[in-house]
Amino acid sequence: MAFPFLMEEGFELGTLGAFDAESDAQPKLDFPHYRELARFPGLPAPYRGGYCMRVDLSVGTTDAYVQETGGWDTAAAATVWTRFYVWFGGDPVMATTNVFAFWQLWSSTNTVEASVGIEYTTANGYRFFINEAAAAAGAAFIPCILNKWHCIEIVALVDSGVGNDGTLDLYVDGAHATQITALDQGAIT
C-alpha cells in the first residue's frame, strides 16, 4: 500500500535531515536521541524512531526553524496533509498574547498562508491555534494540555483562485478540532 507522503523525516541522523535549511542563531534547536529525552520523568515517546526535533524556548526570542523550500510546493486547489507530534511543556513562560508558531506554509519568502501554534493569554491559558496568518488574531483555538504529547494533523486546501475557497482543518489527537473556511491563499512555494 502506498502512502501519499511528500516527505517523512525522523531526524535519524541527529540533524535537520531532509529539510533544506535551518535558521538557529541562539541556538534553540537540537535533534536529541531518545536516551536524552528519557531523562525527563513522564515524557513518553509516541513518535517513530529514536530522534526528534526539540526547540528550547528559554534560550531567547529569536526565530529558529527548519525549512523545506521545494518538496511541499502545492498549486491552487490542491491539498497539503501534514502530521506530527508535539510536546509543549516543562514550565513555559509566555507573556499574554505571545505566540509560538510551530508549523507554517508560505506562498513566498514572507507570506504565511497557514499557521499552527500555541498562544498564551492570561484569560485563556495555553491554546492551540490555526490561522491563515502567522498571528493568532482571528484564529480558531482549542485548549492545549501541557506536558503531554499531542498528535497534530493539518489539512490545508489551497484557495483555487476563484473566490475565497481555501480551508484549514486542524485535528488534535485524532479528533477534528476546528476548521477555518473562505480563505484567500496563494499557492504554496
In short:
The protein has one helix at 34-37, and strands spanning 21-24, 29-30, 54-55, 64-67, 79-87, 98-108, 111-121, 125-131, 140-143, 149-157, 166-172, 175-183. It is globular, with a radius of gyration of 17 Å.
How are the elements arranged and paired?
Layout: E1 21-24, E2 29-30, H1 34-37, E3 54-55, E4 64-67, E5 79-87, E6 98-108, E7 111-121, E8 125-131, E9 140-143, E10 149-157, E11 166-172, E12 175-183
Antiparallel strand pairs: 1-4, 2-3, 5-10, 6-7, 7-8, 8-9, 10-11, 11-12
Task: Give start-end ranges of low-pLDDT stretches.
Answer: none
Order of strands, main sheet, comes to 5-10-11-12
Number of helices: 1
How much of the sequence lies in strands comes to 35-45%
Query: Which bin fits the share of residues in helices?
Result: under 10%
What would the average pLDDT be, to the nearest integer?
87
The coarse overall form would be globular
User: Helix/strand-derived class?
Assistant: mainly beta
Largest sheet: 4 strands, antiparallel
